[in-house]
Every structure is written in C-alpha cells, then in structure tokens.
Amino acid sequence: MACTSCAADTTPANAPRWRLALWIALAVNLGMFTVEIVAGVAAGSQALLADALDFLGDAANYAISLGVAGMALAWRARAALLKGWTLALLGLWVLGSTIWSIWNGAPPEAHLMGAVGVAALVANAGVAVMLYRFRSGDANMRSVWICSRNDAIGNVAVVAAAAGVFGTGSAWPDLVVAGIMAGLGIWGGWQIMNQARKELALSPADDPYPAMSRTSTE
Predict the structure, then answer these.
(1) Burial 176-187 (b: 16+ CB within 10 A, else e)
(2) Would the pLDDT of 189 be above 70?
(3) Which domain holds residue 185?
(4) Which of 121, 158, 170, 216 sits between 20 and 30 A of 27, alpha carbons compared?
(5) What is the pTM of this model?
(6) Is the pLDDT of residue 192 over 80?
C-alpha cells in the first residue's frame, strides 16, 4: 500500500549511501536469482521460478536506478516508469505460467523448495530493512523499496507453499503462491507507474543534469 502519510525522504538522488544500498541490493538479487532459477527447475516449483524471475527483474531495476542517480527528476521518473512496466509484465508472465501449470504441472520437491525459500527470505529481509529509509523518496527510490518489500512477502509465501506441498502432496499450494506473487508484481508495477506519471507531470525540466548545465553556462 502506498505510504501517503510518511514524511518525504530528503536523501539526495546521488547520495553515496543511496548508491551503496543499490549496489548491495543488486549483488544480493543477482546471487539469489542464480540460486532460485537452478533450485526452481530442480524442484519443479512454479513459486521458486516466479521468485527467481522477480530477483532478475529487481536486479535490472537496481542497475537502472544506479544509472540515473544524479539525473533530473524527470529522468528518474522515466526510469521508474520503465521499472513499473517491467514489474507488471513479469507479473503477467508468472500468472500465465501458473495457469498453464494447473493442467500440466506436477507437485514440486517440498524440502528443496522450503530450504531455498528460507535462504531467499533472509536475503530479502536484509535488503528490505536496508532500503526502508528510502521508501518515501521520489518514484525511483520508492520503486526500489516496493521491489524489496514484494520480495520479502513473496519469500514468506514460498516457505508457506513448501509446507503446504509437503503436507498435502499436491501442487496447489505452489500454484496458489505463484499466482499471489504475480498479483503482487502487477500491483507493485501499477503503484510505481502511478507515482512516476505524477512526477513527470510536475517536472518542468528535461535536462538530465540541470546542476551541471547551470555550472557550465555561468
């Protein structure tokens, strides 16, 4: 849910602490993508594969955020808009894959699914705590927070799904969680795009480096 009552974050868009947080988040997400894509295939888990794709999407988003740090608000908002579309499209892809698996899938390997889900939860909880201070910044900062929040929620759900698969011997807990994660991705993407559009409408400048431009003309 969007935070409408929080005080605005005053962290500069190119602050060292912001860039360091992005580099750490990028490394964690790339590492966990590799782990989960291998484990998802090995375990036959749609929820793990969905979470792996989410890790990949987030890693790309953090890389984009690093690329536009220090640019004008309009350019950061455009980057956030791209990230919002990416998150929503990944959510739609996961939803389609989950629907396909309802008729073609088999119960996943619950033990491997649960172990990787716990590892991913620890990694994402750490990233979410680190990024919490930036949640009320501009659309670009908020998009990073929303990604980390969705990941942590998704990991809790993956662990719960593993327990459900183990207890029932059915693929349905895995499929239900994959569907929930798809919905979170679509909703999070809409939140990011909505704020980015508002910032684009309010931004008067189109210069990517306004401060540098003023310095060069003085």
Answers:
(1) bbbbbbbebbbb
(2) yes
(3) 16-81+105-203
(4) 158
(5) 0.66
(6) no
Cβ pair 79, 192 in contact under 8 A: no
Residue 7 lies in a domain: no
Phi/psi zone of residue 103: left (φ > 0), alpha (ψ -120 to 50 degrees), beta? alpha
* Cβ count within 10 A of residue 103: 6
What is the number of structural domains in the chain? 1
What is the mean predicted confidence (pLDDT) over 112-129? 90
Whether 93 contacts 177, CB under 8 Å: no
Q: Look up residue 133 and give its DSSP letter.
A: G
Q: CA 139, 140, 143 angle in degrees (round to 5)?
A: 80
Are the C-beta atoms of residues 95 and 69 closer than 8 Å to each other?
no
Q: Above 60 in pLDDT, residue 217?
A: no
Instruction: Establish how many alpha carbons lie within 13 A of residue 168's alpha carbon, considering only the half-sphere containing its beta carbon.
Output: 14
- For 169, left (φ over 0), alpha (ψ -120 to 50), or beta? left
Mean pLDDT throughout 86-115? 82
Letter for the amino acid at 179?
G
Q: Are 129 and 28 in contact (CB under 8 A)?
A: no
